[in-house]
Amino acid sequence: MAKIYETVIGLEVHVELATRTKIFCGCSTAFGGRPNSHTCPVCTGMPGTLPVLNRKVLEYAVAVGLAANCSITRYCKFDRKNYFYPDNPQNYQISQLYLPVCRDGYVEIDTKAESEGGMPGKKRIGIHEIHMEEDAGKLIHDEEEDCTLIDYNRSGVPLIEIVSEPDMRSAEEVIAFLEKLRLMIQYLGASDCKMQEGSMRVDVNLSVRERGTDRFGTRTEMKNLNSFRSVARAIERERERQTDLLESGGTVVQETRRWDEAKEISFPMRSKEDAQDYRYFPDPDLPPVSIDDGFLEEIRSRQPELRTEKMERYKSEFDIPDYDIEIITGSKHMADLFEATVALGVPPKKVSNWLMGETLRLLKEKELDPDDIRFSPENLAKLIALTERKAINSTVAKAVFEKLFDKDVDPEQYVEEHGLKMVDDREALRKAVEKVIAANPQSVEDYRGGKERAVGYLVGQTMRAMKGKADPVTVNGLLKELLH
Predict the structure, then answer these.
(1) Which Gene3D superfamilies does the UniProt record give (predicted)?
(2) Confidence at residue 98, expressed as pLDDT on a 0 to 100 scale
(3) Which of 70, 162, 344, 362 has a beta carbon 3.0–4.6 Å from 13's, enabling a disulfide?
């Protein structure tokens, strides 16, 4: 009888925090910039320099811990993780091993039947710990010059590392967990979690074991995963590789593997280190961190409404479909835009229609994310008001919205400057309709002969004559009135 294998997955998620300055110095954390321009003696590891903890890093770490249902370590400290690599200027990384700031939490995900072995439902993914640490620099491998360059701009950028329990059993569960985690952190404002910019990085620890046994198999760690798609593909490939190895009588080696996105394969990088290999010891330059009741209550009082709570409120407060709610709250930026526009007095369904329709269409066309939306709620409200009072028709509104989407133009000013307001002179409109009727006797005959669709052509000709500045419904009504 063939063995049935079960996949066991735990994650290490590194999140770059949204502070303006680095974790232990005053250098900028801005993405990009000329190489080695955001550096100082502290973050380049010069002898005699002393690190000073950025309070905002602690605030963000505790906020994420509270949102992830963690216990907050009231007395925590920093340790030195020793390893030697060119992107690590001190030859050690300041991290937290013995007393991490957050422990023993969980994130609840929605599961599918195939990943639960039964009915769809909820599943808690345990959070082993969340700790603060500094990032390393970046190595740039120049193939033309056959050399490696080092950019220390990222060195000292503040991170939290979220270490899950090995509670996930499929790629679907992993992606559900990561999506929930990313949205939670974005709603907190702790990070933008842009994987393409490296502000959220995922390492996957994976092993397989025979179903029914409690003993874990030998795990590997997968690195270089820069998108959710990469994470899912890497999990599937590694599960298959380990299963094939065991089936053929081989042995899985504990190692770190690098994922090649182009080839969709992984290859060994090095043997997987354990904690003792890093020779951790308490950092002698940083005092322990003591978190009192006042600090904890301050952070707790500032916790924002997270997505799950927001979805429930939208269902009770706004008359919009559940699908709209799911899409809008799937981006904090879009949810903020929606609420700000509604707060200006625009009916929620009208705002939702523009976000779900034209906004999503343009995002897809331009290959952008909802976080890339740059138009203001004030200008969206103005555009909706113009359409509601029939100052412009729907065709013009869509054209103006494209300008709004690209450059956040003032719709009222744009419509005025480009002469796009609808003609509300009924007599002028009647004359235009009469001319169209006179110029198109065949269409008139077709309509009077029972071909209802013929009137559509006449509407189009009238709209062309009016340069699009007429209400098609009004034009349609006038045509039918004059043709009878």
Answers:
(1) 1.10.10.410, GatB domain, N-terminal subdomain
(2) 95
(3) 162
Query: Residue 10 has which token pair?
Result: 């735990």
Residue 201 CB partners (closer than 8 Å, separation 6+):
13, 14, 195, 225, 226
Tell me the C-alpha distance between 201 and 195, whole Å.
Answer: 6
Cβ contacts of residue 20 below 8 Å, gap of 6+? 28, 29
Crossing angle (nearest 10°) for helices 426-439 and 472-483 = 60
Tens of pLDDT, residues 237-280: 999 999 999 999 999 999 999 999 888 889 898 776 666 688 99
Q: In what order do the strands lie in the sheet with 255-260?
A: 71-72, 102-111, 121-134, 158-164, 5-16, 200-210, 220-225, 255-260, 265-271
> Each residue of 415-458: pLDDT tens digit?
989 888 876 656 767 777 777 787 787 777 777 777 777 777 77
Least confident of 82-86, 125-129, 427-431: 427-431
Contact yes or no for 201/17 (Cβ under 8 A):
no
What per-residue confidence (pLDDT) applies to 116?
Answer: 45
Rounded distance between C-alpha atoms, residue 72 and residue 101, angstroms: 6
Q: Cα separation of 439 and 431, whole Å?
A: 12
- Residue 115 has a pLDDT of 44
Strands 281-282, 79-82: pairing kind: antiparallel
- Which residues touch 193 (CB under 8 Å, ≥6 apart)? 15, 182, 185, 186, 199, 200
Name beta bridge partners: 266. 259
Domain 426-483 carries which CATH code? 1.10.10.410
CA gap 378, 61 in Å, rounded: 34
Q: How far apart (Å, rounded) are the C-alpha atoms in residues 384 and 390? A: 10
Q: 220-225 and 75-76 as β-strands: parallel, antiparallel, unpaired?
A: unpaired
Q: Give the separation between CA 157 and CA 137, rounded to whole angstroms.
A: 9
Determine the Cα–Cα distance for residues 410 and 407; give it in Å rounded to an integer.
9
Where in the chain do CATH 1.10.10.410 domains reside? 426-483
